[in-house]
UniProtKB/TrEMBL annotation:
<keyword id="KW-0614">Plasmid</keyword>
<protein>
    <submittedName>
        <fullName>Uncharacterized protein</fullName>
    </submittedName>
</protein>
<dbReference type="Pfam" id="PF20126">
    <property type="entry name" value="TumE"/>
</dbReference>
<dbReference type="InterPro" id="IPR045397">
    <property type="entry name" value="TumE-like"/>
</dbReference>
């Protein structure tokens, strides 16, 4: 699959929400956006795995910048791509390369969390 087709696949998930396991949902936002330094790939996205009534366990998004390890003296990326490993994680930089890689990384983390928490899954 070429990068354009991968991007169209991600964009086709915009607004999709489904139950990944009993009591847990996966939600997608993926929209075209004018490229800018904070979103150089021209996407506004949020991929979330969470309990139906609760905070996200895993979230990949580019809604805001995140602090870099090392504090204010370490220059971080301009792009806002990042991911949250837990509900309390303030976020860590994510190196967005392709839409397909984003989806693969998201699903890998969803499976990790489901396995760690004993949530039945077929992923």
């Amino acid at each position: 699959m070429n990068e354009d087709a991968e991007l169209e696949l991600l964009l086709s998930l915009d607004g999709v929400s489904f139950e990944a396991a009993q009591g847990y949902v996966v939600e997608f936002i993926a929209r075209r956006f004018n490229p800018m330094p904070e979103r150089p790939h021209g996407l506004n996205y949020s991929l979330v795995f969470r309990p139906k009534e609760g905070e996200p366990f895993v979230r990949f998004d580019n809604a805001h910048a995140v602090d870099r390890p090392g504090g204010k003296f370490v220059k971080g990326p301009v792009a806002h791509d990042h991911w949250h490993r837990t509900a309390d994680d303030p976020g860590r930089p994510y190196n967005f390369t392709t839409a397909a890689q984003l989806l693969e990384d998201f699903w890998r983390e969803v499976k990790r969390v489901m396995d760690e928490r004993g949530i039945p899954n077929d992923l």
